[in-house]
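Sample A.
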Amino acid sequence: MKLLHSALLAATLPLAIIAPVAPAYQANAQEAAQADEAVQHDHIRTRLYGTAGPVVVLIPGMSTPAAAWDDTVASLVDDHRVLTVEVRGFAGERGTANESAGAIDGIVADISADLAARNLGSATIVGHSLGGLIAMKFGLAHAEQAKSLVILDSLPFFGMVFAPDMTLEKVEPQAKQMRDMMIAGAEQMRAAGLANTTSGAGAAGMSIDEATRVRIANWSLDAEPLAVAELVYEDTMTDLRSEIASLKMPVTVVHMANGGYREMAIERYTTDYAALPGVRLVPVDNSLHFVQLDQPEIVRAEIRAAAAK
């Protein structure tokens, strides 16, 4: 099990901690489809794609911009309304509310307010990594707005990647250490983001594809370290393993189960989601942490199925 813990830790920690800086490279993401004007809240920025069909909300993972969903949006927009969430700071913006305590709860509240203001009704909430935790928090706080949840490679307690007997009390020193290290190294991390990288070496555990690892590494290097530091701390200090028993909507969890990690991953996810009756666990081979990029057809099929319920 230690091998799986190490893989999940490398796959989930912000790359600003672990990614080396290589020669400059800048990837330019293109719009996936025609969208309305961005709507900005204290913690998030949203865009709505499409004009008809079930509503799908896409929440990115740690240090990941909304552009990570471009291909997913393009595949859904013809017959869905797709709301992309960008966590402010994850695209490089400084001085946002996500640099202060209460960032996760603020993101959840902003998503709820955005759905209400747009009069979109109940939606399928999709979240990757940190976004998966946010999706679960959203389902617990705003059940009337969440018809279903699709969780992508996310545990209800991130602290489990450190040790199989981890508790909030035990993990707090490590959570503080990660946060403080990123705050202390913020200027160096921003400089690394300006340089960017042509290597995917720092994104090992993120994707099976080298070009995709380069994209992921650059997304992470571009993220504002102070926002990442706060959200890493809050993510690590959130344990929903018991609380998820209160989720009443259908929940699908799609997770990597690659090669030799398959049985260990299945055991980890089965154990950590044990409190949630009826959860649909979907192990995905030939994939690492970014399952929506490594095996997009599987993920999109699960999103479509959840949105159709």
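Sample B, a different protein:
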Amino acid sequence: MNFPKPDAAAVTALAPTGTLRAAINLSNFLLVSSVADDGTPTGVSPDMASALASALGVPIEFQTYPNPGDVADAAQSGEWDVGNIGAEPARAEFIEFTEAYAEIESTYLVPAGSPITSFAEADQPGVRISVKERAAYALWLERNLEHATLVESESIDTSFDIFVDQGLEALAGLRPRLVADAERLPGARLLPGKFSAVQQAIGTPKGRDRAGIVYLRQFVAAAKTSGVVANLIETHGAAGLSVGPLASP
């Protein structure tokens, strides 16, 4: 499609070296479906970054990271120009975000026989919730849980192992991954609904010319309203990923 044409100030703000350095979080299989032998990622997130580079009229260079926490950390060291990660208040202290171009429901998996049937019942004293540290949904839980205890681990796989091995009361995660995890645990079930939705957005480090973030927000809005994001989700078979809500007029 024809995205809004950026002015020179926006291009300079977003690609000061003449190349768009795009940070990609490799840990979310809905957003990055595969990685080539040369390290080039494929999926909704890389394709969004490539479309942005094309709209800016500059080449792209992918900066890949094993998890979103590392992407956020690298924003402060100048390693990338735009980063595709969940928009969270803790990250917004040093990253300016667009509205979400896509979102993913977060919920709990509970073991067979669990008496927990709602999110309110999960937030009680004595309830231990396994979670991957620094994931967007983990940051949300840190801000919002009042009584339950978070048990954090380094990876999604480890959070599942701890949930099972230590007999924890719940496992927090993205619904598509938890659906697969439930198949490995007879009797386990997902709680209906969501406690939050990860707002997958595009960010740029704070302190740059405002023309950059202004253009990014125009780009994301156009990608959603034109069907670009929906087409990418369909093309990559990213079931569980949905187009982010449109901004209020």
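Observation for Sample B: The two ends are 22 Å apart (CA to CA).
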